[in-house]
Amino acid sequence: MSYNLVIFDMDGTLIDSSRLLANAINHVRCQLHLPPMPQDTILSHVNAPHIDPAKYFYEVDRFEPIHEQWFSEYYSAHHATELQLYDGIRSLLIHLHDRGTTIAVATNAYRVSALESLEHLGIAPLFDAVVCQDDVPHPKPAPDMLYRILGAFHTPKGSAVFVGDGPRDEEAAIAAGIDFIMVDWGYTEHKAEKKVVRSVEELWKKLEGKSKNYQE
Predict the structure, then answer these.
(1) Taking Cα atoms as reference points, which of 123, 133, 136 lies closest to residue 95?
(2) Which end of the chain has the lower number of beta carbons within 10 A, N or C?
């Protein structure tokens, strides 16, 4: 099946930001006089659908603008050295863009950080829309981001797919009523029997029903 609209999660799906994400969260914790968390602990909970991230990561009732400021300060200062695309992603995005597929990002990252990441990696111009957690009332696993993108392009639900790496992404797609593809190279550990896509070439097949050799 070929989709008219392909929506991607960002961190753990397009971008390997594991080191940067963990360090940025620990930078905020430092400002709050909290001890650092191990990187593995942070990454294993980033996509956990049933935790309150503000309470879990920062021990506060809700995210405040100062938390975003501290996070973005670290992110901006270090994305050049702690951020990279997963192998094959650039080629896939270029292909989808060039063939006229509408492609978008739905990310729980802050807009400032998300745009900086996409621009630094040279893929921002490939996307028709980028929707972030501070653009909608409720971030993933709520479907708000996906609804906004579907509405912006007047896309029937049957013509859209969301690609992500964790349960928050999957729950958002189910709530929005669109297809979902789970990838296995992100921050969530998947059981061997779970149906997940384990390579970018396999993702290509899922999106278009054909394979391609990727060369960055």
Answers:
(1) 123
(2) C
Residue 182's DSSP bridge partners are 164
Characterise 138 by phi-psi region: left (phi > 0), alpha (psi -120 to 50), beta (else): beta
In the chain, the N- to C-terminal Cα span, in Å, equals 25
**Are 37 and 25 within 8 A, CB to CB?**
yes
Listed by start position, the domains of the chain span 5-16+84-208, 18-82
- pTM for this structure? 0.84
Note the pLDDT tens digit of each residue in 59-105: 999 999 999 899 989 988 998 889 999 999 999 999 999 999 999 99
Count CA within 13 A, CB hemisphere, residue 167.
13
Instruction: Say which CATH topology domain 5-16+84-208 has.
Output: Rossmann fold (3.40.50)
CA distances from 31 to 25, 36, 71 (A): 10, 11, 10
